[in-house]
Design brief:
- By secondary structure, the chain is of the alpha+beta class.
- The protein folds into 2 domains: 87 residues; 172 residues, no CATH class.
- The protein is built from 11 helices and 4 strands.
- Strands 1-4-2-3 form a 4-stranded mixed β-sheet.
- Helix 8 packs parallel to helix 11.
């Protein structure tokens, strides 16, 4: 039978949390985000107690309930007698973002999850974009599922870009360009993918060489730098300027938004 667990009830149940594994605050934080936002979905997982009231399963959900201050719906299983049952709980593989996208939406492109995470981070940023830095914030599975519907057209772009082994952050950058100005973005992207350039100093060629020849970037600074040079090259391309060097120095340069960014539909931006 379904039960609404309040923070007070959660605290009472957790008094029987003895000899359990160490709580992962990162896991709790994920659950807090969903509970506080009202996105918690009862999925059949239960709170499990043995005959003496010892908690066998559910400590992360109960802790998140207290920290979020939000009640949640679940089922409670009482009276498990065999202590050996404890070692069989939560031994399966956790479903990650890629699993959720495939199971719920049939999205099988391996770059899809990373591209969605990049877009989620860009569009939930609340500071001045000149200081923007990709910090690879944790995104819950619920948020990933919502992002799949929010960022329309991304799956198709992932399929097209996948043929060129393009980094997910580059795909995310191209998606933003298309939402800012689809006509000019397509001309820019087509040049890069076709490898046809007017001169060695063409901004599209500079970006092409950076993402296909120089190799992919790693780490938060590398990913931020890659996104910045996508936007920087695009802005030079629109302005008809040549580029001797395509470079972005995080410690020195302001993050460049692409031309037309202000025209992107507000439905893509995430406000708290």
């Amino acid at each position: 039978m379904k039960t609404i667990i309040t923070p007070a009830m959660a605290g009472s149940i957790l008094q029987g949390n003895v000899g359990n594994r160490k709580i992962s605050q990162a896991r709790v934080d994920d659950l807090v985000v969903d509970m506080a936002a009202g996105n918690w979905v009862h999925n059949g997982q239960t709170i499990v107690l043995n005959t003496s009231g010892k908690l066998l399963d559910g400590q992360h959900r109960l802790t998140a309930c207290i920290q979020s201050g939000a009640s949640f719906t679940t089922e409670i299983i009482y009276g498990i007698e065999d202590e050996r049952a404890f070692v069989t709980i939560d031994t399966g593989k956790t479903r990650g973002a890629t699993d959720i996208l495939f199971i719920e939406h049939g999205a099988s492109n391996p770059r899809m999850a990373s591209a969605l995470k990049a877009l989620h981070e860009i569009f939930c940023y609340e500071g001045d974009y000149k200081d923007f830095l990709m910090v690879r914030r944790k995104v819950t599975n619920q948020q990933m599922s919502e992002a799949f519907h929010r960022y329309d057209g991304l799956e198709e772009l992932c399929e097209q870009a996948g043929k060129r082994r393009m980094q997910a952050v580059v795909i995310a950058g191209f998606w933003i360009l298309k939402k800012a100005d689809e006509h000019n973005a397509n001309k820019f992207i087509d040049k890069i993918c076709a490898g046809l350039f007017d001169s060695p100093d063409c901004p599209a060629k500079r970006l092409h060489d950076a993402i296909f020849i120089s190799g992919g970037a790693r780490g938060t600074n590398g990913i931020t730098r890659t996104l910045a040079i996508v936007f920087k090259a695009y802005n030079h391309f629109l302005a008809g300027k040549k580029m001797k060097i395509l470079r972005f120095v995080i410690e020195r340069d302001s993050f460049p938004l692409p031309a037309g960014f202000e025209n992107i539909d507000s439905k893509y931006f995430i406000t708290k």
